[in-house]
Amino acid sequence: MGEAEPAGMQRRQVLAAVVAGAAAAPAWSAAAPDDAAWAALRAGGIVLLRHAEAPGVGDPPGFTLGDCATQRNLSRRGREQARRVGERLRAQRVAVGAVWTSQWCRTRDTATLLALGEPREEPAFNSFFDERGDPRAQTAAARERLLAWRGPRALVVVTHQVNITALTGAGVASAEGIVLTTAQGRLDVVDRLEPSR
């Protein structure tokens, strides 16, 4: 996006990118909630997980990527949510092959607290909310990374609501996940994993 574009035009472009992602999203599975999702993950599927609870919206003025003091961070409840999500995946016997995360502190902290493996930062999953980043380019790069996943273990990606919506058309709560499989160059939504209370 050019720096000279009015803020309203930039916001419309972000919204258009999210809507375009939603329009391309696959239909939900008719299988029983959770059962199909767990089976897909045990077979090497992908879960796009929104970071755990971090009160507020967006990031404060003065946001700096490498400085957690300038960002929204996990609440005490959010830290506990993240631990419970990790416990739930282990209880369901999901073998995790990799954990990817955006570079935001709240996603990195969620990924670490899952305790499912060493998280790796993947900038394609960085938030583009509030005119940060390029939604179209990031979503394309994220889709390409996901389509390249071959298992045989599950991939856990901790990212942001706006990214998940652009990729799947689904809104998600804090610590909620969308389970995907890949087939013939497309991402198929299996089901959602409700957040651990």
Automatic annotation (TrEMBL):
Q: Which CDD domains match?
A: HP_PGM_like
- Which InterPro entries does the entry link to? His_Pase_superF_clade-1, His_PPase_superfam, TAT_signal
> Do you know which Pfam families this protein is assigned to?
His_Phos_1 (PF00300)
Q: Which domain of life is it from?
A: Bacteria
**Family matches, as Gene3D superfamilies:** Phosphoglycerate mutase-like
Please report the name of this protein according to its UniProt entry. Answer: Histidine phosphatase family protein
What does the record give as the organism's lineage? Bacteria, Pseudomonadati, Pseudomonadota, Betaproteobacteria, Burkholderiales
